[in-house]
Amino acid sequence: MSKENDGYGLSAEKSAKEIKPPKLNYLPRKPKSYNPKIGLIGTGGISDYHLKNYKAFGLKVVAISNRTPSKAAALRDKYYPDAEVYEDYKKLLEREDIEVVDITPHPMDRLPILKEALRSKKHVLSQKPFVLDLKEGEELVKLAKENNVKIAVNQNGRWAPHFSYMREAIDAGIIGRPVSVDFSLQWDQTWITGNPAFENIHHMVLFDFAIHWFDITASFMKKYTPKNVYASVVKYDEQQYSPPALASCIINYEQSQVRMAFNAHTVLGEEDVTTIVGTKGTIRSRGPGLNDQPLIELYVEGGAVKIPLEGSWFENGFKGTMGELLCAIEEDREPLNSAEDNLNSLRLCFGALESANKNKIIVPGKVNKIS
């Protein structure tokens, strides 16, 4: 081989000049003066993170409802000792002083509560996944508009520091038009073993977990229309739990592609990497887990920089979803995490589930519901 071909297939190593980090507003926002009374309906495990971060954010939760009052009382005593506890959520909705409700039960139980809250003219933050039927989601969006209130979805991943920074960088045009987005996750979810709430979800990875990544994709690619989606799942003999631990998904756009790779059974060497290559640069985040992404790597024509991030997913995320809803109410606009916008995320997710079930390419929006 001649000397000029010795490096065939290898890029020349480049040393990039360090540049100043772009100033982007990626942290959760609070309203300037609007701080309404909030009611929480449902006190499942995730509600602890809601209340912990609402308290840290200076928000006012005045009522908590659960069918088991002792569970609501325990959370009340832990975070908001002056809040009222209700066994019947309808009593909470009757309170005229409560303007915003956070509704956390599972989708089937949550649907009638969402309807009653909107008819009670309360602004609503709904737990995710928003609905299991897109038509029901569209009806809820319509109901909110008829009652002149706002409904948002607790897709808290949008305010995970790394995802929020990346979204703001895309919106600011820093890396140009996104050409490829790669999500590569290897994590240990063997803690679900023996828990029927998870073991009975066949698409535990693609649905219960990856709903965040479909939502992040919709957020990153909001200016573009997805053409089709192909997904697959694999279960292997050495798994400790029932649902397939391996999943992948490709979403094609006219001139770009989003690729997801998941291994939920990585008991050694966990890693979570997100890379976005744009027409003007590349942005990357890497860490041992979704809640530990310490910095952003940015590469553009003028140079490169590593940007330390503030906060974590389980802090910024829960502050961000409620904070954005409150800001939207104060500013009389639709929230970034509006229910109507979230339907785009569900179209991607539902299409991926159908694709994995039938081993075929699916056009997002052709599948309206899941069983």
From TrEMBL:
GO terms for molecular function: nucleotide binding; oxidoreductase activity. Residues 37-154 form the Gfo/Idh/MocA-like oxidoreductase N-terminal domain. Gene3D superfamilies: Dihydrodipicolinate Reductase, domain 2, NAD(P)-binding Rossmann-like Domain. Residues 164-284 form the GFO/IDH/MocA-like oxidoreductase domain. Keywords: Oxidoreductase. It comes from the Bacteria. InterPro entries: Gfo/Idh/MocA-like_OxRdtase_N, Gfo/Idh/MocA_oxidoreduct, GFO_IDH_MocA-like_dom, NAD(P)-bd_dom_sf. PANTHER family: CONSERVED EXPRESSED OXIDOREDUCTASE (EUROFUNG), CONSERVED EXPRESSED OXIDOREDUCTASE (EUROFUNG)-RELATED. This is Gfo/Idh/MocA family oxidoreductase. It comes from Zunongwangia pacifica. The lineage of its organism: Bacteria, Pseudomonadati, Bacteroidota, Flavobacteriia, Flavobacteriales.
